[in-house]
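Async update (no meeting this week)

Hi team, since we skipped the sync, here's where things stand on the single-chain job. The sequence we agreed to prioritize is pasted below, unchanged from the tracker. I ran it this morning and attached the output directly underneath so nobody has to dig for it. Comments welcome in thread, and please keep replies under the output.
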Amino acid sequence: MITILGAGESGTGAAILAKEKNLNPFVSDMGSIKPMYKALLDQHQIPWEEGQHSAEKILKSDFVIKSPGIPETAPLIKQLREQGTSVISEIEFAARYTHAKMICITGSNGKTTTTSLVYDILRRAGLNVGLAGNIGSSLALQVAHEEHDYYVIELSSFQLDNMYDFKADIAILLNITPDHLDRYDYIFQNYVNAKFRITQNQSPSEAFIYWSEDPVIDAELRKLDIKATLYPFGQNKDNHNIAYVDEDQMIVATEATRFFSIPTNELALHGRHNTYNSMAATIAAQILHIKNDVIREALQNFKGVEHRLEYVATVRNVRFINDSKATNVNSCWYALESMTTPTVLILGGQDKGNDYSEIDQLVREKVHTLVYMGLHNEKLHEHFDSMGLQVIDTNNIADAVYQAYQAAHEGDTVLLSPCCASFDLFTSYEDRGQQFKQQVRNL
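Output:
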């Protein structure tokens, strides 16, 4: 018997694949299981429980597949580890049953956008490709019922933590800035180590694409012996970058016979950080021998990702931007860096050990009003109030949107870019973004 802990998208998919492989799966979730997942489990005759973990039964498992949301410090996980039971991720499990090429993307910021863009390019090229990981459908469920030749997978540090034999054919590491430190004992190096697991098991026949100008990545590469072929990208041609910006052109040349260029103002995704995301996606596409005209079409027409610098509406000449996916400080930095008008910034939520000093300069340059939105805004007050900006306290989305609108002047932008997790007031950053958009429409 194997046990799947957590019955969300990844857990249910893992259970169905396990059933297909006659591994006698059992699903256990400490919370409540959504009706759609209960129906899927029942349809496949997979036993499940909710609201508890039957430890006596689970501890007898041959191995356990763990939801990324369950920390290693959970008592049951500690017990499993102590008795030597293997605990792996859904991605690790699913990869055992497919020979598909794996294009894997991680980073503190930009991974959803880059993953979606790579997937879009491959689809336009006519490849048989699936989208999995943090976005898309469960990899395990796709392996069980669809089976693609390629998978584009967004990987969080939590997923990487429980991957051991998995190997990425193409690994993309966009950046590393402090995030989820509450999960990593507030030790940044632990988080860095998790991100670099994306390169594990790679050989020179695999590719490692990375932002060469990220100081954390650069320092780590000086310590590690990465076996994969390196494909660095950055702003400048030096640092051996094979993708860079030359005047107003984004240049990508993975080899002497592959040269691609596009004016940066033709990119569908705007802002310097999105130019980097476009570089990483183009390098991956070139490695897969996708034609330049297909890459160009995708870069010019890609629609972007919901909740990431998403334009919502203009109300009486005030623009509203939904950047709810900015769950860490560095994401907010990128959002503020792209602002071209005076800004009212809505931020706050569940703090993850944030250091807000990273955005101080941009806040001073671009923001005239801060709207705090959370159950506990004390840390925001402590850090920002001394700047002398207008500060407004709120504890719900309706009030935050209304107060931000009242504080804005014609031509301003109201930016929701919270820096924080959403779980104090919302079920997810998606829920936060949807509620924000609804409140804007109600104005």
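Quick observations from my side:
The chain has three domains: 2-88, 92-301, 310-442.
The two ends are 54 Å apart (CA to CA).
Reply here if anything looks off.
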